[in-house]
Amino acid sequence: MSQEVYIKPGIPDSEDKIKIREENSIQNIREDDRYVLNERQGHGLQNTFEEVEKEQDEFIDMIDFDTLHDIFAELVGRSTGSKTDINFLGREDVVLVANKTVLNGAGGMFAPGTNFVKVWFPMDKRWDNEKSENINDYDLKKRIKIFGSKELMVFDALVHEMSHAASKNICIGENDYAPGYSYQQSGYARDLADQTRDININEYPDTKDGLPAKGSFFRVLNEGVTDKIGHQVALEYLKKEGWPQKEASKYRKLLEKINTDGRSGESSLGGGYESESMLVDELINLIAQDTGTSEEAVWQSIIEGYFSGRGFFDDELVKQWFIDTLGKNFVELLSITNLSFGMSKNKRDMVKHIQEAISKLKEDSVIKE
Asked: Do 106 and 160 contact (CB within 8 A), yes or no?
């Protein structure tokens, strides 16, 4: 199964306990949301919780989760050979909240250990007296406009988080370290709260004692892959469900713009992972050119690793190819670079490494001819 939770290595947690944690977490989130919104009544907030909840329910009701499941199952089946080994989250596993804003109005999170998705659902009516939490109204309107609608903007965030959920997720040994486990894996991303010998050391930067360092790894790669998968699933859903053409057309144009903006290091207000997905695109281009395979074949291999749990550097030969082709510094940056909005120096350096390698391949090809 693509979702695995262990109390200790080799000792699985019970599904009943995981479900209870999920239900309790969702209940607590809803209660917090209701409390914050009710507290702000009379202090500039114009929405009542009932109004917000009604709008959230209307949005969830318009999503056909059966269609989404079929699309994910087909995608996973093509890459891993099994359409059943998928951690698909349904309507009951999604909670929408209004009391927090992220970037310019949308975003979300997936919690592997409790197995639910939280998505921020921006309100139409804003409050004015709490500037620290109030998003820029102009940016919100602009963001909604380029997505085609608020519903499509939130749907994009929802599918992104559901892609995280469908990837290979493993949690081992609870402790006090966020996100609550001594080892957590989601897709290509890894979080280590302590040094352990129960993992593949090839995946991580070397340390003096031969054990991997504590911290988060492969975040940039994982979010780039997740974003590309999420967009692929969302586009297929829009086509199958006959989403209003005007909105769907704007969304397709947005994805084209994200690709352009990502390559220039600019933000299109389309999301937080333009530069991450652009880095993945450049990697696909390089691998395809060096190996003589199609970009689609390379992409399918990356998807397979994302859903099966295969680490990016599990194979020592693959890791050595990256070192030989892009240098040890690139391998280090790909592993340790933290997430950031826009094109950070580390991400820019990685892209430069890739583009220089592509140029060298082209030069070598000309010389051979």
From this structure: no
pTM: 0.85
CA–CA gap between residue 223 and residue 258 (Å, rounded): 14
CA 254, distance to chain mean position in Å, is 18
Helices (H), 193-244: 219-241
Please tell me the total count of domains within the chain: 1
SS3 191: strand
Dihedral (CA of 161, 163, 166, 170) sign: negative
Which tokens in the block code for residue 97? Answer: 């909240």
Measured distance CA(103)–CA(101) in Å, rounded: 7
User: Which residues does 146 contact at the CB level (< 8 Å), separation at least 6?
Assistant: 250, 254, 257, 268, 269, 270
Q: Nearest 5°: CA angle at 280, between 278 and 286?
A: 105
8 A C-beta contact, residue 282 and residue 351: yes
- Which parts of the chain are beta strand (E)? 3-8, 11-12, 94-97, 107-111, 116-120, 169-174, 181-186, 189-192, 215-217
Per-block mean pLDDT, blocks of 10 residues, the chain (369 long): 77 84 85 69 55 85 94 85 77 81 63 85 54 50 81 92 93 60 86 58 45 74 94 93 87 78 51 80 92 92 91 86 88 79 74 84 59
Q: Which domain holds residue 262?
A: 1-369
| Region class of 95: left (phi > 0), else alpha (psi between -120 and 50), else beta | beta
Are 99 and 136 in contact, with CB atoms under 8 Å apart? no
